[in-house]
Amino acid sequence: MLAGMSCSEYEEWRGYWHEHFFTDALLDAHFAALNLNVVSLVCGDSEGELTPAHFSLLSPPPLPEQLPEHEPDDEQMMALAEGISGGVRYVPASG
User: Fold this and answer.
1) Which residues form the Minor tail T domain (predicted)?
2) Helix or strand run (H / E) with residue 79
3) Distance in angstroms (rounded) separating the CA atoms of residues 29 and 79
4) Percent share of the chain, pLDDT over 90
5) Is the pTM higher than 0.70?
6) Distances in Å between the alpha carbon of 45 and those of 5, 38, 57, 86, 95?
């Protein structure tokens, strides 16, 4: 970003941020977006269920009516548990 600026643009930018410091909300928004990008790259969130608000430290938690109603059943939970590396199964997967 700074490499593409002229000297006068850089001086304006420096003067602005000298008077208006980075606020907590701005830093939180940037880190929330960064965390969202990292999680999306690692986990492949293709459905777009996650938003930066999920990673924000300053935003309030979602209201109960905003939370999904769906709770996984036993078979889904067992299938998810089988995929955890280093996990120990105490019951056979079949039967």
Assistant:
1) 8-88
2) helix 74-82
3) 35
4) 5
5) no
6) 35, 10, 20, 24, 33
